[in-house]
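Dear H.,

Thanks for agreeing to be a second pair of eyes. The structure we're designing against is below in token form, covering all 317 positions.
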């Protein structure tokens, strides 16, 4: 069994508060007590508090104002609110519900009714959590490349922009490596696209094993793979690029038809270079040195700003 669901009980009357607490905990919940509106608001900063019982009349901030503040806040999971009050006129009930409360109960509290209403609130919270999980799954699917399951071009470009901004704030370099599978069109033409897909999947798998958890990998287009490396300058990116190249080319890739020799060429650039303030500009520079790596015979790494020092075997495969 998991932890009991927390319920906020905001009630300034000590005796009423203790009675509510005893009943709520007998029903299998965990009560969190607050004696004022301000104390209730502070307690509700805990995102585990998803169910709340708020007394309308409390010292300082009343329950209605707490409701309004809860509904105005952003980036919090939904909080189900039951408003308690001795006021039983229709206009009072309407005013309470209009403030953002989900339910309204009049005092003295009927505890069998309260238990049923809490169960309703719990069902609403559970449903919302399930919908959030589905929403996040759909968002993740939309952000992934359909074949390789790594980030797609739009998402990896967004990550790079965010990482560049963070790097600028923290005065740390951001590195980008753009890799291209050598002679990928020939692989597709000779073995067929199904084998080409298998080869690309194996390349991605080998690359993923050689990067840090903080790095991000995405499919930039076709057989081009892009890797974002936070806090990675020119000295380090040379070593990373060569490590990635070797990880792919050290042995042939096994497919259902044959073992296919596969190598990659890589172009590396970092935000330490001039003219790299935006993601597009940094990628453009990485792409330009990737083109140079291909011109040098492929299966090598070229670092922007150090084009005369290519790394790798520089031979055709």
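And this is the sequence the design step returned. I haven't edited it by hand at all.
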């Amino acid at each position: 069994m998991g932890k009991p669901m927390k319920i906020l009980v905001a009630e300034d009357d000590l005796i009423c508060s203790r009675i509510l607490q005893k009943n709520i905990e007998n029903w299998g919940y965990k009560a969190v007590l607050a004696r004022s509106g301000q104390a209730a608001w502070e307690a509700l900063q805990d995102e585990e508090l998803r169910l709340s019982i708020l007394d309308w009349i409390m010292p300082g901030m009343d329950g209605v104002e707490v409701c309004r503040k809860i509904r105005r806040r952003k980036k919090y999971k939904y909080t189900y609110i039951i408003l308690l009050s001795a006021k039983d006129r229709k206009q009072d009930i309407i005013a309470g519900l209009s403030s953002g409360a989900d339910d309204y109960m009049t005092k003295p509290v009927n505890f069998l009714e309260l238990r049923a209403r809490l169960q309703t609130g719990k069902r609403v919270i559970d449903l919302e959590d399930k919908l959030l999980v589905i929403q996040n799954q759909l968002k993740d699917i939309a952000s992934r490349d359909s074949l390789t399951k790594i980030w797609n071009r739009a998402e990896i470009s967004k990550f790079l922009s965010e990482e560049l901004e963070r790097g600028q704030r923290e005065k740390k370099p951001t590195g980008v490596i753009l890799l291209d599978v050598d002679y990928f069109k020939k692989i597709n033409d000779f073995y067929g696209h199904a084998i080409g897909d298998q080869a690309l999947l194996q390349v991605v798998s080998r690359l993923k094993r050689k990067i840090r958890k903080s790095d991000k990998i995405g499919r930039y287009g076709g057989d081009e793979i892009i890797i974002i490396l936070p806090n990675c300058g020119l000295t380090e990116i040379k070593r990373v690029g060569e490590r990635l190249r070797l990880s792919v080319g050290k042995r042939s890739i096994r497919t259902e038809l044959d073992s296919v020799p596969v190598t990659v060429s890589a172009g590396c650039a970092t935000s330490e270079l001039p003219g790299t303030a935006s993601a597009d500009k940094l990628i453009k520079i990485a792409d330009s040195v990737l083109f140079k790596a291909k011109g040098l015979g492929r299966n090598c790494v070229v670092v922007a700003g150090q084009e005369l020092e290519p790394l790798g075997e520089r031979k055709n495969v």
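Two observations from my side: The CA atoms of residues 19 and 244 lie 65 Å apart. The chain has a mean pLDDT of 91.

Warmly,
E.
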